[in-house]
């Protein structure tokens, strides 16, 4: 096929013959590195191959050949066109008949008038086609016998040969729509007439948008047919050519198949890695990658290790088959207990630190000793310092007898139960009292318990031989994320699959025609991936997590300086009151004996010490002896001497 302009090729193209492969014979370039204009390709190089897949009519430019005026017709234009025999018009019917005789044309011939023709029978509209059947005498006048086809009937008219025009000769045939004219190659560049247009004659010039595939172009290329390039149809000699069309993994995911899909990696996104798995280093340009489908289920858990100075972070698939056992949770403050309290679930904890209650503020603010057992009941408010409402946790102190007799007997005996209040800013540590030795699957664990949750992996996932989670003393399951992943495998290691999130690791690949080589049976999938620290915190900043309201800051207790000032003020008042009743002494008094007196029977040495019964701890009396508070040297007199 000889080279032709792109416009001529598209106008003569039969849409049923698509796709067609074209080679650019002469390219066109725009200055300034412009590659696309309004989404259309504007630069083609000589030698480029284009695989045309679709052709769409954009508009039709209608031009008056006499004046050069143009107007644009929409593709859905409803007018009908007739074909003119030539650009010449005739002033009278006699000139029309004479021209037909000279060209040896036989009657009948078709013509039209650019003006209305009034006869006794009716008025012929302008541009209405008429058929001249014969020339004969009518009422003593030489007339042209014509037939007017109105669609419903045919009307016979006798027009004198002296009838003035101008008249235009028409090609015989039916009227054609716009699309019929454009689809007929014989009517290209021919003069046409249409009653719906203001001109007697016009030519039509269509403009198309071409959709094509080019080498290494990710999306479909859109080329205007008016682009001034010459092309050659090389479809017959290019059957073996495969057009490489890059795809993103996100596009493969959106397309939804077909799977398995053999591909080749064309480009790996730049940036720091997000996984610390061994397969990350194998994702290189030129490696073959087989996409097996969308991973199921679509949810993942973020987990961090416990018991190490530098925690490691993992993403655990919902398909993880290992067995997990719950571990006691640790709570640094009472406020953390409030966050872990769930309706319908019992929460029992053991104090891990001594805590001296704020009895001066409220007698209900109880002290705690290490080892005290509590059951968290609810949150409430109590009157605190400066007569202000303070958020507290209402807990029930559990005695050792309750642990031995059982929970049912303790609930029935209300006399042995004591309710206490802990301000939310209580700094004492707590650990969950847990007696659950059951082994859970990951799915059951997330359904029955809320996150975060601390667990120990007891049995590793059998489908993942390199499961690293069993080597850690504990895991903290942080958050659940829902994100589609693709199950893929490398051609170099077809026996092991792993999951890639296109949202964060969007590889550029190209489809391959060769089917992938797969071992028989189902392939194991790595269900645990270690995350880099940067990517882990990036996941924690996702909108799904940001939409969760942050916990309110716990109420602040009185500052240390305020406590010191208030304490010193109270001590000063007490000291002045006591010193008024006592004689001033220059030397410090000997320390008061606080141990019990020794008796003859040493076995009763501790019998005189008050029993330290677990329960409400008595606060220190306000009227405590000044000498019992401290044993500091009196330097009041020595201080002036040093001056």
TrEMBL record:
Q: What cellular component terms from Gene Ontology apply here?
A: cytoplasm; nucleus
| InterPro entries linked | CABIT_dom, THEMIS
Superkingdom of this protein's organism: Eukaryota
Q: Which GO terms describe its biological process?
A: T cell receptor signaling pathway
The protein's name is Protein THEMIS2 isoform X1
Quote the biased-composition stretches of kind Polar residues, using this chain's numbering: 595-610
CABIT domain: from which residue to which, for each copy?
18-237, 269-516
Q: Where is this region: Disordered?
A: 544-631
Q: Which family does it belong to?
A: Belongs to the themis family.
């Amino acid at each position: 096929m000889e080279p032709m302009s792109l416009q001529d090729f598209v106008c003569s193209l039969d849409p049923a013959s698509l796709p067609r492969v074209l080679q650019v014979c002469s390219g066109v370039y725009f200055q300034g590195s412009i590659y696309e204009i309004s989404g259309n390709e504007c630069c083609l190089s000589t030698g480029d191959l284009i695989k045309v897949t679709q052709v769409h009519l954009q508009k039709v430019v209608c031009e008056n050949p006499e004046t050069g005026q143009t107007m644009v017709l929409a593709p859905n234009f409803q007018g009908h066109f007739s074909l003119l025999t030539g650009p010449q018009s005739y002033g009278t019917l006699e000139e029309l008949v004479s021209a037909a005789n000279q060209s040896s044309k036989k009657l009948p011939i078709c013509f039209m008038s650019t003006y209305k023709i009034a006869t006794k029978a009716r008025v012929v509209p302008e541009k209405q086609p008429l058929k001249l059947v014969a020339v004969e005498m009518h009422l003593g006048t030489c007339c042209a016998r014509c037939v007017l086809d109105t669609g419903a009937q045919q009307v016979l008219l006798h027009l004198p040969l002296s009838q003035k025009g101008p008249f235009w000769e028409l090609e015989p045939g039916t009227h054609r729509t716009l699309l019929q004219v454009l689809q007929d190659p014989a009517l290209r560049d021919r003069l046409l007439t249409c009653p719906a247009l203001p001109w007697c004659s016009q030519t039509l010039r269509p403009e198309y948008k071409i959709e094509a595939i080019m080498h290494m172009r990710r999306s479909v290329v859109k080329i205007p047919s008016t682009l001034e390039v010459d092309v050659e149809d090389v479809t017959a000699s290019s059957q073996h050519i495969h057009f490489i069309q890059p795809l993103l993994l996100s596009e493969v995911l959106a397309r939804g198949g077909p799977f398995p899909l053999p591909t080749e990696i064309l480009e790996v996104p730049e940036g720091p890695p997000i996984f610390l798995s061994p397969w990350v280093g194998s994702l290189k340009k030129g490696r073959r990658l087989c996409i097996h489908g969308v991973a199921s289920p679509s949810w993942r858990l973020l987990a961090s290790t416990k018991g190490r100075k530098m925690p490691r972070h993992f993403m655990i698939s919902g398909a993880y088959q290992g067995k997990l056992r719950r571990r006691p949770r640790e709570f640094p403050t009472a406020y953390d207990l409030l966050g872990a309290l769930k309706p319908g679930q019992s929460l029992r904890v053991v104090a891990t630190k001594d805590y001296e209650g704020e009895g001066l503020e409220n007698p209900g603010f109880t002290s705690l000793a290490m080892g005290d057992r509590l059951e968290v009941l609810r949150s409430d408010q109590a009157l605190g310092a400066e007569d202000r409402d303070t958020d507290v946790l209402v807990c029930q102190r559990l005695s050792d007898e309750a642990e031995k007799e059982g929970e049912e007997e303790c609930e029935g005996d209300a006399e042995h139960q004591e309710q206490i209040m802990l301000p939310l800013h209580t700094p004492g540590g707590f650990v969950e009292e847990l007696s659950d030795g059951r082994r859970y699957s990951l799915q059951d664990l997330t359904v029955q318990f809320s996150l975060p949750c601390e667990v120990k992996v007891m049995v590793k996932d059998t489908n993942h031989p390199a499961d690293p989670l069993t080597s850690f003393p504990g895991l903290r399951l942080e958050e659940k994320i829902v994100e589609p992943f693709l199950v893929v495998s490398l051609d170099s290691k077809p026996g092991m699959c792993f999951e890639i999130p296109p949202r964060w690791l969007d590889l550029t690949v190209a489809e391959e025609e060769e089917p992938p080589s797969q071992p028989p049976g189902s392939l194991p999938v790595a269900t645990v991936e270690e995350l880099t620290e940067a990517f882990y915190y990036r996941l924690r900043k996702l909108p799904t997590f940001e939409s969760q309201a942050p916990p309110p800051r716990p109420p602040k207790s009185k500052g240390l300086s305020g406590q010191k000032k208030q304490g010193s003020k109270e001590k000063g008042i007490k000291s002045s009151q006591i010193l008024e009743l006592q004689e001033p002494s220059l030397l410090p008094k000997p320390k008061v004996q606080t141990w019990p007196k020794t008796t003859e029977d040493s076995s009763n040495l501790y019998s005189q010490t008050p029993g330290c019964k677990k329960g409400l701890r008595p606060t220190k009396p306000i009227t405590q002896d000044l000498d019992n508070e401290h044993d500091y040297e009196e330097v009041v007199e020595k201080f002036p001497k040093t001056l």
